[in-house]
Amino acid sequence: MAEHSLSALPTHSRWNRALPPRLSIASGDTVHLECVDSSGAQVHPGMTLAEYLKIDRDRIHALTGPIFVEGAEPGDVLQVDVLELMHKGWAWTSVVNGLGFLKQRFTEPFLFLWKLEGAVSRSLAPAVVPLRPFCGVMGVAPGEDGEFRTRPPGVFGGNMDVRELCAGATLYLPVLNRGALFSAGDAHAAQGDGEVCINGMECPVDVTLRFHLHKQRPLSAPMIETSAQQTRDADGGEWIIVESATDSTVAARAATSRMIDFLAEHWGFSEVHAYVLCSVAMNLRISQVVNEPIFTVSAAISKTNLPQRRIF
Hints:
Blueprint: E1 3-6, E2 14-15, E3 23-25, E4 30-35, H1 49-52, E5 64-69, E6 77-87, E7 90-95, E8 110-115, E9 120-121, E10 129-130, E11 134-140, E12 148-149, E13 157-158, E14 170-174, E15 180-188, E16 205-214, E17 223-225, E18 238-245, H2 248-267, H3 271-281, E19 282-288, E20 295-302
Parallel strand pairs: 1-4, 3-5
Antiparallel strand pairs: 2-12, 4-16, 5-15, 6-14, 6-16, 7-8, 9-10, 11-13, 11-15, 14-17, 17-18, 18-20, 19-20
Helix pairs in contact: 2-3
């Protein structure tokens, strides 16, 4: 179980399973990744709006990777334990014409620069925003040939923008290619569910991840396990099913259906009893509404509702 370090550069801003890996690791290894902000280090503290409007948007999301996991094959599950994320003291959020959930209302470009303290930002007074850094993009290479923009998420993970993926979380991803080919980036120091204006607090981070491989375990799309150390899940953590679709209602139905199957498989509920439990104990969250044409919905149930289980 070795430890590795991977610098941010050279980043990549497309999913492509033909990209050569930058690092090869074994199951059980830990990797310290450097991630630039989502602009690819084009935005900087003190930047003006005029300067921001000139950045090269083809460089978004500027991911670190790919990481080749030895022994990984299609049909396996890649477990990614999020151990630590450290911000660099600053972040940015923007409004871009034609993007965002309220793009018809907010048409003028805008740039806001944040100063980050250890655990909060007081830049937008009188608000005090607690910080909970996470990578908006975490995923493996898609299973198809070709080059794909990083904006839409999918069964491979990617630009899910699920804010629960902070330190203490575990992400489970289906392996779609030999070696899995994992990449991460688009870090946010904080983000609300929905990420409505198009950005969270976009920031550079240092992130530490530990990888485990589970051979030939069926998983149709990403799943997350959170822990008691996470602020939002102080009651003991959650099981979270993640689904993305062009219609948020379709994604919500798919996440709910997968949760019913998950409860039935691992805790022995009948399907109808699992359905009832979802109705009284499960939370549906809109994780992001801005990566059009794809929306992401998370279905979460507290671990306190269930006997303790190891799923993988």
